[in-house]
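Q: I'm writing a short explainer about GDYXXLXY domain-containing protein for a general audience and would like to include a description of its predicted shape. Could you first generate the structure from this sequence?
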Amino acid sequence: MKKISLILLNLFALLIYFNYSVAQKESILKDGKLVLLALAPVDPRSLMQGDYMTLNYELSTDIINQQLPKRGYAVLRVDDQQVGHLVRFQAEREPLQQGEQLIAYSNPNDWQLHIGAESFFFQEGHADRYSEAKYGGLRIDDKGNSLLIGLFDEHKKQIN
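A: Of course. Here's the predicted structure. Afterward I'll give you a sentence or two in plain language.
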């Protein structure tokens, strides 16, 4: 009887955590600020890998000579076309100047920066639509959590 109670308690805790996670993502989609991040060039042979593409962002291209913490924040300044430009990296949420936006990152190996949106999945047979993408569109909340909502072309229009 104790084992069943323990299993049910763990299942209940897992369901609570799952629902909380979904609610948090829905909140970012609804209230997060749209920021377009420029995509860095990717080796064409690895650009399309089945029904998804690997994304590499310009903000992560020059981190090799920097001593970044394993987790931190990229501080962006967003222009009037909603394009985010890297200002600096910092370990904490503060300091933050007016007009700056945070995006949380992890730095697993000193040459890669992950913002949680490194893959874009699409319907089979639609690879050609996304091959000319110039921006990744992310919704970002005030804590730096981000969610990839799509890819955008050179005119900053979402590719459907």
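A: For your explainer, you could say: The longest strand covers residues 71-78.
Q: Perfect, that's easy to follow.
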